[in-house]
TrEMBL record:
<feature type="domain" description="NlpC/P60">
    <location>
        <begin position="305"/>
        <end position="361"/>
    </location>
</feature>
<dbReference type="InterPro" id="IPR038765">
    <property type="entry name" value="Papain-like_cys_pep_sf"/>
</dbReference>
<protein>
    <recommendedName>
        <fullName>Glycoside hydrolase</fullName>
    </recommendedName>
</protein>
<dbReference type="GO" id="GO:0006508">
    <property type="term" value="P:proteolysis"/>
</dbReference>
<feature type="domain" description="SH3b1">
    <location>
        <begin position="148"/>
        <end position="199"/>
    </location>
</feature>
<dbReference type="GO" id="GO:0008234">
    <property type="term" value="F:cysteine-type peptidase activity"/>
</dbReference>
<dbReference type="Pfam" id="PF12914">
    <property type="entry name" value="SH3_7"/>
</dbReference>
<dbReference type="InterPro" id="IPR000064">
    <property type="entry name" value="NLP_P60_dom"/>
</dbReference>
<dbReference type="InterPro" id="IPR039439">
    <property type="entry name" value="SH3b1_dom"/>
</dbReference>
<comment type="similarity">
    <text>Belongs to the peptidase C40 family.</text>
</comment>
<keyword id="KW-0788">Thiol protease</keyword>
<dbReference type="Pfam" id="PF00877">
    <property type="entry name" value="NLPC_P60"/>
</dbReference>
<dbReference type="Pfam" id="PF12913">
    <property type="entry name" value="SH3_6"/>
</dbReference>
<dbReference type="InterPro" id="IPR026864">
    <property type="entry name" value="SH3b2-type_SH3"/>
</dbReference>
<feature type="domain" description="SH3b2-type SH3">
    <location>
        <begin position="208"/>
        <end position="253"/>
    </location>
</feature>
<keyword id="KW-0378">Hydrolase</keyword>
<keyword id="KW-0645">Protease</keyword>
């Protein structure tokens, strides 16, 4: 039986279009055209009743979210190596490797590499120890530069969007511990709640204990989409909140339809200035937000079909950040790195055969609280389709493809491949780009002619974030 793969083509309120890939039956024929079948959100396996997220889980979420402020600089420096992200020794990797490619698909030359390393001023580390706050959405980088660091673009799966200098996006209102400034004072090496690395100082304001005391109210609203406008009273400018952000608030008027939350701006001398802004209560989660169908549906709808963003580039999401931001709404802490996420909750090693994997998933997996993993990619299990297909919600860039030389012409007519190259076995390796967050069957990629492999075949682990 051929199994489908699916993705959302156009944003619709409750429709999830699914594309079915039907492979050709002979080597010389073209693959059949893609057919579209629609699923409704109501057909997914949402929880039948609210699932209680434990108080311990929610406490851990808040503790980890505020870690850069709650710990002393000395203690953070002492365990710097234990935080995810690259240390300053990564500069030497950059110096030694000639195969870093820029946005123009040409290698970074030796002169510019040496200039960047000198600007990092690693010899004076740590030269600026101060607590800070992200005041505008920004990126955390492995090196103090906005320029990309691609591997050889001609390789399959390399080049855009895989900028290896990009670690993660950081949303506004993220607490930081700044440890070091670049020589030109444009970059700060920081510890954030999820990664350490370099952040543009234009996106950071410095905070003192008085500001921290006012900001850490113990009550934090979480945006339900990326479209919540934050426009402080009297300001000519605004930003859009992001799912996964924390918005502190101090008082809750149960009679009002809106809530006063905090954000910050930077003064001329880089000090944080507390700002207050009102948001509609219906646009944010507050307190112990119920984990149930009523709340999950709009969250999934808001994330579905969004462009893929490696490391959060362009304020988009990759596989791990999409799952992380979704879970943050319910105050469930997840690391940013996809591999580290699998260390959370109850871990399972999946059996070898597809049937055994399906049996274990059906027996143990809890929809929307189970992460499935293949190498380099996490997927959220979301139950079964009406036809009994196990479904996954994931932000995916592409399917790996392998095509014999004699079939290449026919294949490219139907499926353009990015970064195609010929491997040692003579086959052409490439990618069938999906490039967005999708709901698919676990059999996505299954192909009788072995041009692509199904996600299920490649899965090797499962983690249950909370038992049912």
């Amino acid at each position: 039986m051929n199994h489908p793969w699916s993705f959302k083509l156009l944003p619709k309120p409750i429709i999830i279009p699914c594309i079915f890939l039907l492979v050709s039956c002979t080597d010389n024929s073209k693959p059949e055209e893609v057919k579209v079948i629609e699923y409704r959100l109501e057909q997914l396996s949402f929880p039948k009743k609210p699932i209680k997220i434990s108080t311990k889980t929610q406490t851990t979420f808040l503790k980890n979210s505020l870690l850069p402020w709650a710990s002393s600089p000395d203690s953070l420096l002492a365990k710097l190596a234990s935080f995810p992200g690259k240390e300053l020794t990564y500069l030497e990797k950059y110096r030694a490797d000639d195969n870093w490619y820029g946005e123009h698909k040409k290698p970074h030359n030796r002169q510019e590499r040496e200039a960047l390393i000198a600007n990092a001023d690693a010899g004076s580390f740590p030269n600026f120890v101060h607590k800070g706050l992200v005041v505008q959405h920004t990126d955390l980088r492995r090196l103090p530069t906005e320029r990309p660091g691609f591997d050889q673009p001609k390789k399959a799966g390399e080049g855009y969007p895989f900028d290896y200098f990009q670690e993660t996006a950081l949303w506004a209102n993220t607490p930081l511990q700044i440890l070091h400034l670049s020589r030109d004072k444009q970059w700060g090496y920081v510890i954030s709640p999820i990664y350490k690395g370099w952040v543009s100082m234009q996106a950071i304001a410095l905070v003192d204990e008085e500001f921290i005391s006012a900001w850490t109210t113990g009550h934090y609203a979480r945006p339900l989409s990326d479209n919540v406008v934050l426009n402080p009273e009297g300001s000519l400018f605004a930003i859009k909140a992001k799912m996964g952000m924390l918005l502190p608030y101090s008082e809750l008027d149960k009679q009002a339809d809106s809530l006063e939350v905090f954000m910050a701006a930077s003064t001329e001398n880089k000090q944080a200035r507390l700002l207050k802004v009102r948001v509609a209560k219906k646009e944010v989660a507050m307190g112990d937000y119920p984990f149930e169908e009523k709340t999950l549906k709009p969250l999934v709808s808001a994330l579905l079909g969004r462009p893929y963003g490696w490391g959060g580039a362009l304020e988009n999401r990759d596989c791990s950040s999409m799952i992380r931001d979704l879970m943050s709404t319910y105050q469930i802490w997840l690391p940013r790195d996809s591999g580290d996420q699998m260390e959370m909750g109850h871990h399972y090693d999946l059996p070898d055969t597809a049937d055994q994997k399906l049996e274990l998933i059906e027996k143990e997996a809890v929809p929307f609280l189970t992460i499935l993993r293949k190498k380099g990619h996490n997927m959220l299990y979301v139950g079964k389709s009406p036809e009994g297909e196990p479904l996954i919600f994931h932000a995916i860039w592409a399917l790996k493809s392998s095509v014999p030389h004699e079939e290449l012409g026919n294949y490219l007519d139907q499926y353009p491949l990015e970064g195609m190259h010929q491997a040692d076995d003579g086959e052409f390796k490439g990618r069938i780009v999906i490039g967005q967050s999708v709901i698919t069957s676990v059999h996505l990629g299954q192909d009788e002619q072995n041009r692509t492999r199904s996600q299920l075949d490649q899965m090797y682990a499962m983690t249950l974030l909370q038992p049912n």
